[in-house]
Design goal:
By secondary structure, this protein is mostly beta strands. The protein has helices at about 5-15, 25-45, 55, 195-205; strands at about 60-70, 75, 80, 85-90, 95-100, 105-115, 120-130, 145-150, 155-160, 170-175, 185, 220-225, 240-245, 265-270, 275-285, 295-305, 310-320, 320-330, 355-360, 370-380, 385-390, 400-410. The chain folds into two domains: about 5-45; about 55-410, Tachylectin-2, Chain A (5 Propeller). Helix content is about 10%, strand content about 40%. It starts with a helix and ends with a strand.
């Protein structure tokens, strides 16, 4: 309903002979009546639903299982297919890349994927590409622990390595050739992520003082990695954003009490052909570790939109088995912690990345596996994106490499 008070009064006046035209008090009374009717109409017919401030932080996101596929145990070109720690879908080529976290021969597989949109997914291995250093030589066994991966169109992969404090190997994020697997560029990391044993050796060579215990912890480093562009763009012509998160807290951020959640860090970069810039860093608070868990961390993220919304997988394992949950993340109100050396103790003054449960994978009609990889796939006939989640069998004959395909509903 739209009411123009002044024009209505004017028409009312024009419809009478001048001798019978309403006086000014009649016009004012008419305006008052019409205003009251307008307010009543808005209150009764146009009432807005009550939405909490918390809900306004998040998108309306849900997932429905479309289908699943278990990859048969098999060798391909002499090595077993397994240890899938990250996946990325290439829309123009209609292929799925799967990163293996084998420390002996780090590699990624190229799969032909069919049936992703009709409920009958199937993956057929077509090629394997072994990762190489910047000189084109295969990595020595144990020197690269490849965990996170994103496809950068048209022909690159960003891959994260967890490193190993015990073996004096630093964590890393590198850009690799899709065709050859050769390292092309290494991204800069803040010193606080480098274990003190490695960093102090470098600082001693430069005549600098040593630092206290710090850096990534063994096997809970850079596990989650995502970029903000779709593989369907065909190419990158402007700066894009990279997000990489630790699976667990840095040593200097660790609180040794069970009732304080792990405090992970998420790095936000912009990347173009000329430079890489660290834009900000944010606190990601894990759910409390389940009783008896020996593994508990953030295993993967995926970018939902350009407004700071993500999906994230939290994974735990212990004597109760796996506990795996899919969350929506909202980073818009999160504090930049890039100048904060330690997150130990009270962090009530720091705004963390907020999160909201989307799916507890235990609610699916399927046995829980070691799900830790995630990517967006092709669009469904209804226009929704597919979301693909994959499990890591740890090269264990008793575990499976399983792929779940979901209908991602997002508004």
């Amino acid at each position: 309903m739209v009411i123009y008070l002044d024009s209505t009064a004017f028409l009312f006046t024009r419809s009478f002979p001048m001798s019978l035209a309403p006086t000014s008090w009649m016009q004012n009374a008419l305006k008052t009546i019409l205003s009251s009717l307008l307010v009543l109409s808005l209150v009764t017919g146009c009432a807005l639903p009550q939405v909490s401030a918390e809900d306004r932080l998040f998108l309306d996101v849900s997932v429905d299982l479309v289908g699943s596929f278990t990859l048969a145990k098999q060798d391909f070109e002499g090595d077993p297919i397994g240890g899938i720690s990250a996946i990325a879908y290439d829309i123009p080529r209609d292929r799925l890349y799967a990163l293996s976290d084998s420390r002996d021969r780090p590699r990624f597989y190229t799969f032909k994927a069919t049936g992703l949109t009709d409920g009958n997914p199937t993956l057929i291995p077509e090629a394997v590409t072994y990762l190489k250093d910047n000189e084109g030589s295969p990595y020595a066994p144990g020197t690269l622990d490849s965990e996170g991966m994103a496809f950068v169109p048209p022909d690159k992969l960003l891959i994260s390595s967890e490193g190993s404090p015990a073996s004096s190997i630093a964590p890393a994020v590198g850009e690799y050739s899709l065709a050859t697997g050769q390292l092309q560029t290494v991204l800069p990391l803040p010193d606080r992520y480098i274990p003190e044993g490695i960093l102090n050796a470098e600082r001693a060579n430069r005549g600098l003082s040593v630092v206290e215990a710090q850096g990534i912890q063994e096997n809970i480093s850079f596990e989650a990695l995502a970029i903000n562009i779709s593989s369907g763009t065909g190419g990158v012509y402007e700066p894009y954003r990279l997000f990489v998160a630790t699976e667990g807290p840095l040593l200097q951020d660790l609180d040794l009490t069970a009732d304080i959640p792990y405090k992970n860090r998420l790095l936000h970069y912009t990347i173009d052909q000329y430079q890489t810039t660290l834009v900000s860093e944010h606190l990601y608070e894990m759910e409390l570790s389940p009783t008896g868990a020996v593994l508990h961390g953030l295993s993967e993220i995926a970018v939902l939109d350009q407004g700071g919304h993500f999906l994230g997988i939290e994974r735990s394992y212990g004597f109760q088995g796996f506990d795996i949950k899919l969350f929506q993340l909202a980073s818009g109100s999160a504090t930049d912690i890039s100048a904060i050396a330690s997150l130990q103790g009270d962090t009530s003054g720091i705004g963390p990345i907020r999160k909201k449960l989307v799916l507890d994978l235990a609610d699916l009609p399927l046995p829980l596996q070691n799900y830790e990889a995630m990517t967006f796939g092709p669009s469904l006939p209804n226009g929704d994106r597919t979301l693909i989640i994959a499990s890591d069998d740890n090269f264990d004959p008793e575990q499976d490499t399983n792929f779940l395909v979901f209908d991602l509903k997002q508004t």
